[in-house]
Amino acid sequence: MSTRPTDSGAVPRPKTTVLTLREKHRLGQPISVLTAYDYPTASAVDAAGVDAILVGDSLAMVVLGHPNTLAVTMDEMLHHARAVARGGRSALLIGDLPFLSYQADTAEAVRNAGHFLQAGMDAVKLEGGRHLAETVGAIVRAGIPVMGHVGLTPQSVNAMGGFRVQGRTAVAARAILDDALALQEAGCFAVVLESVPYRVADHITRRLSIPSIGIGAGAGTSGQVLVIHDLLGLYDKRSPKFAKRYAELGTLQAEAIAAYKREVEDRTFPTRDHAYAIPEDEWQAFVQSPAQRRPSSLKGARR
Fold it and tell me: Any catalytic annotation for residue 194?
């Protein structure tokens, strides 16, 4: 496997590729995926050894403050993808194709997927099942790895009537299975199963020969993905049931900002430890220089 040298010259862990994930899946080893939207977060996720980083269109909500994922544009996604590519040296980097960037025209979908690779991504993800098999095939034939996404597809939130669990009836569960199989046949290297009953997700995972990446789909999938802001407790809106909060950094952030404001107002920050000094001889030369002497007409003036 190839590696990307770090800025310090140290050799990082081997670069994760779609072949890496395929091998982990073959060996039954769980696959870890997290979202990231900027350089420092991507660097931290990469340093932790997470297998793949998704530049998710969830940035519309957790970074840009929109109520859903529909508002984010290709330009915004590519901007964040470039930042993540600078920090994610070893993880597999996946760019999320945003709403209306692939649904209407196959040629446009291929071009937009290519833009993500030009921005430093290794693969792309798109939402939808059987009706997008032709689009997936075209992108794959262009040499671009594709991750599928079925079950709850947030870009279709209005058609679904909200963020609702999918596959709770036999008919609906069969449709999700058919979608996942169609994406596999079209060439996807993995498929995300979102908000699907765990027994349905287990069954689909057994039927697939490619990895399934669960989010709200139980522990039986080939791997898991979470939104980093949910994991860290940085999203101040309601998080879904499946989003385990491993930390409450939002609370720590609020406390730190409040402490800074308080210390500025009571003049306890900055201290001398946070200030720079000038050598005493240079200071004396400065204050005694002719340019610093006040004209005699200003003697006794207000200081």
Answer: yes
Catalytic residue among 127, 185, 194, 263: 194
pLDDT tens series, the chain, 303 aa: 445 555 555 556 899 999 999 999 999 999 999 999 999 999 999 999 999 999 999 999 999 999 999 999 999 999 999 999 999 999 999 999 999 999 999 999 999 999 999 999 999 999 999 999 999 999 999 999 999 999 999 888 777 777 788 999 999 999 999 999 999 999 999 999 999 999 999 999 999 999 999 999 999 999 999 999 999 999 988 778 899 999 999 999 999 999 999 999 999 999 999 999 999 999 999 999 887 666 555 554 444
User: Is residue 261 one of the residues assigned to a domain?
Assistant: no
> Does a structural domain hold residue 74?
yes
* Nearest alpha-carbon partner for 125 in 104, 105, 155, 85: 155
CA atoms of 232 and 216, how far apart (whole Å) = 17
CATH number of the domain enclosing 185: 3.20.20.60
Domain residue limits at 124:
18-226
* Total number of domains constituting the chain: 1
Q: Which of 226, 228, 232, 231 is nearest to 250 (CA)?
A: 232
